[in-house]
Design brief:
By secondary structure, the chain is mainly beta. It is built from 3 helices and 9 strands; from the N terminus they run E-E-E-H-E-E-E-E-H-E-E-H.
Length: 134
């Protein structure tokens, strides 16, 4: 049976707070955000840099509980800078039956990386059709 690669989790529009070129690699994420999204330490994660229009892949590591720090480490620090808005996304493989009912875990954060709300995502055309202030 074929498998499909689907979005598993997304932390939407997080604000990068640090970049450490000398660290071995990865992106540091507060454990509260990782838990909410269902992301585990060392899981492969994509970083979509909304500010710069770039994408890269690394792995997630837990930061300090209670912190709001999101830090690009190692080579990623060449592409992700403090203040950048990023989308952090993981993917997983699902068989046809699971894919038909799969819903990714979507975490939307504010400018201080605190959870505003959790999914679902509003499709672009629907979002643009909403009245101002809703």
């Amino acid at each position: 049976m074929p498998f499909r690669k689907l979005l598993s989790a997304k932390i939407h529009r997080a604000t990068v707070t640090g970049a450490d070129l000398e660290y071995e690699g990865s992106i540091t994420i507060p454990p509260e955000l990782m838990e909410a999204a269902g992301i585990v330490p060392y899981e492969s994660i994509q970083i979509w840099n909304v500010t710069r229009g770039s994408r890269l892949e690394t792995y997630a590591i837990e930061g300090v509980r209670g912190s709001s720090d999101i830090c690009a480490n190692g080579a990623a620090a060449h592409h992700v800078y403090p203040g950048d808005k990023v989308i952090l996304a993981t993917f997983a493989f699902y068989d046809r039956d699971d894919a038909a009912t799969h819903c990714p875990r979507l975490i939307f954060v504010d400018d201080h990386n605190q959870i505003k709300h959790e999914g679902p995502e509003i499709a672009g055309p629907q979002r643009r059709a909403e009245p101002a202030g809703s």
